[in-house]
Design goal:
Substrate Binding Domain Of Dnak, Chain:A, Domain 2, Rossmann fold, 3 domains, 6-stranded parallel sheet, 26 helices, 16 strands, binds FE(4)-NI(1)-S(5) cluster, binds iron/sulfur cluster
């Protein structure tokens, strides 16, 4: 690392980066240098390699014809690339959802032990949404029907995804009018691949209609199926205390990190780690116990449901191994850096892959089989325990940093927390938005990106928002960034939130930033927004709400799919770091302006986090004005002052 560039605002980073260097291994930031500066064509979306006449690049600065060899224009190339990102992101979330649906169905049929129905209320809710008869039927039979219907959503050839009916009616009408109500999830992904093949769809607007349709199949389809069926099987998250950051690793215990995205396996590893025989074995090996910690979205899943500590977010995965204290890093799918295999070699850590879909050269493969889930999990835990004596004590550096937090705010929880168990409703939230104590709602989500200072943009945007009385809903790696600095505690309201938001947080006992789960759980934000619309008083569509979305440090294609389904659901959505459509003026116009006419939601790009927050607040204020509640703000402050006077 030649230049002294700030890498992170997280205090665990600098000492571990130094340690990695001393230990002779490479980290993401070293490779970043090798890959800088990034190629301008790729970065702006202007590189096409869809056929062997190319690759073709459009140079916006060059005079003359700006077309690929086949005649493809800048906007077509950019739109095709962007659509393919949506297809890939949708595929990733949805294949996860399909895996959950398969296990769900097998479990309902009694074919696999170890999984059960933990949330009956949600089972009935989903049954109703799917049009499944309930009556006095056995929950097992209802579950079988749900599993079958959920799986059929992937291959549905006609009609619409069943969960679309959950959306506000006006939203559904917009989708139907534009012809973007998704059919089967797989079908929408395949259609993007077809339409972006050389010589097919060559109109950027038409391409982005399909991009929207596919993204909706993610948000209101694949991801939503993942969230809902996981909740039924593993339990709907309730507020629970947890800890975050690398300090959760234990000096004297076997440390196992579960990293990736699907809770199917990690749930079982948590169970296996409590197996008395394995705990005994750990003690025989000289450890005090077995410590499980999560990484990336797998972490969010088991944290929310079991309080399992969270080791860190995306950019900390190599650092976790660098601590020298990890016996096994167990991965399934998504957001796994291939470099983990190299870093692990530098220590005693075993990198264990578990999915046939995601093997890493140099890693040990123990394939997860849901029919024998607990036994596979035991085998993995045993492998880790047996590796404990290989830990070189002199090579261990566990940072002190760890923070307390409260997580697990599903949209159902928000419902009863705000409304109370017996009158569960979003009315108190709506009332507080209308009276101005809460200015608006923001979803701030998404990844880390090595091209920006780790966690910094997330935290700047979020602090700015809550200071301005905007309540923040968060998921994914953004949520972990918040946890690490104490934003996910009720006390954070006094320190960081504006007066109005703080008063609401105090009354209800919630943090100003609500951790709603993993990235597939962004569907919880869709549902919360829908619940607010349905409660009344704030318009009749998601696009009417004083709300905005952001992914300040995004990097994955999944983030693009999420962004597009938020936009297509009527949300103003701002992305930071970089944006792969900047190379085409027509695409910029479509995404940043025209979408507001058609989809009633639009994209924006703003790498400066303060400006990003400002844009979101301006949008929120614009919506408040349109709703006629913009004046209420001052009035409420006055009311509060008066009340305090009366009370005092
Ligand atoms: Ni989401 Fe979660 Fe993190 Fe980004 Fe990766 S872990 S699925 S993609 S990096 S937020
Ligand atoms: Fe070039 Fe057209 Fe082939 Fe793309 S599809 S590589 S623009 S010739």
């Amino acid at each position: 690392m030649a230049k002294k560039k700030k890498l992170s605002v997280d205090k665990t980073v600098t000492p571990l980066v130094k340690k990695a260097k001393d230990d002779g291994t490479n980290l993401v930031w070293d490779r970043l240098e090798d890959q800088s500066p990034p190629c301008g064509f790729g970065k702006s979306g202007l590189c096409c390699r869809l056929c062997a006449m190319g690759p073709c690049r459009i140079n916006p600065l060059k005079e003359g014809e700006k077309k690929g060899i086949c005649g493809a224009t800048a906007e077509t190339i950019v739109a095709r690339n962007f659509s393919r990102m949506i297809a890939s992101g949708t595929a990733a979330h949805s294949d996860h959802g399909r895996g959950v649906a398969e296990v769900f169905l097998a479990a309902a049929k009694g074919e696999i032990p170890g999984y059960e129905i933990k949330d009956e209320k949600k089972l009935y809710q989903v049954a109703m949404d799917f049009g499944i008869e309930i009556g006095d039927r056995d929950t097992k039979d209802i579950a079988v029907d749900i599993g079958e219907k959920a799986l059929a959503e992937f291959s549905r050839q006609e009609g619409e995804l069943l969960f679309l009916k959950r959306a506000p009616l006006k939203r559904q009408e917009i989708w139907r009018k534009l012809g973007i109500a998704p059919r089967g999830i797989d079908r929408e992904v395949v259609e993007i691949m077809h339409r972006t093949h050389m010589g097919v769809d060559q109109d950027h607007r038409n391409l982005m209609l399909q991009g929207s349709r596919c993204a909706l199949a993610d948000g209101w389809g694949g991801s939503m199926i993942a969230t809902e069926l996981q909740d039924i099987m593993f339990g709907n998250p309730r507020p629970i205390a947890g800890q975050v950051n690398l300090g959760v690793l234990k000096e004297d215990e076997v440390n196992i990190i579960v990293h990736g995205h699907e809770p199917l396996l990690s749930e079982m590893i948590v169970l296996a780690s409590r197996d008395l025989e394995l705990v005994k074995l750990a003690k025989e090996k000289g450890a005090k116990g077995i410590n499980i910690a999560g990484m990336c979205c797998t972490a969010n899943e088991i944290l929310m449901r079991h309080g399992v500590p969270l080791a860190g977010n995306f950019l900390q995965q190599e650092l976790a191994v660098t601590t020298g204290a990890v016996e096994a890093m167990v991965v399934d799918v998504q957001c796994l850096m291939q470099s983990l295999a190299d870093v692990a070699k530098c220590y005693h850590t075993k990198l264990i892959t578990t999915s046939y879909k995601a093997k890493v050269t140099g890693a040990e493969h123990i394939e997860f089989d849901e029919h024998d889930a607990l036994n596979v999990a035991r085998k993995i835990v045993r492998t880790a325990v047996e590796n404990y004596p290989n830990r070189g004590k002199e090579k261990v550096l566990i940072p002190d940093e760890k923070n307390d937090m409260v997580v697990g705010f599903s949209h159902e929880t928000i419902n009863y927390l705000l409304g109370g168990l017996f009158r569960a409703a979003y009315k108190p939230l709506n009332d507080n938005i209308i009276n101005g104590r809460i200015r608006g709602v923001a979803g701030v989500v998404g990844c880390n990106n090595a091209r920006t200072v780790h966690d910094s943009n997330h935290l700047t945007v979020i602090k700015e928002l809550i200071k301005n009385d905007v309540i923040v809903l968060t998921t994914g790696c953004a949520a972990m960034a918040c946890g690490k600095v104490g934003l996910l505690t009720p006390e954070a309201a006094f320190e960081y939130a504006g007066e109005g938001l703080a008063s609401v947080c105090e009354a209800v006992g919630i943090p100003p930033v609500l951790h709603m789960g993993s990235c597939v759980d962004n569907t919880r934000i869709l549902m919360a927004a829908t619940a607010v619309v349905k409660e009344g008083g704030l318009g009749d569509d998601i696009s009417d709400l004083p709300a905005a979305g952001a992914a300040p440090e995004w990097m994955s294609e999944k983030a693009i799919a999420i962004g597009q389904y938020f936009v297509a659901s009527g949300v103003f959505t701002v992305f930071g770091t970089t944006f792969p459509v900047l190379g085409s003026e027509k695409m910029r116009k479509l995404l940043f302006e025209e979408f507001e006419e058609t989809l009633k939601g639009k994209w924006a790009f703003e790498p400066d986090p303060e400006k990003m927050a400002q844009m979101m607040i301006e949008h929120i204020d614009k919506k408040r004005k349109e709703l006629g509640i913009d004046k209420a703000r001052e009035r409420v402050l006055y009311d509060m002052a008066m009340r305090r006077e009366l009370e005092g």
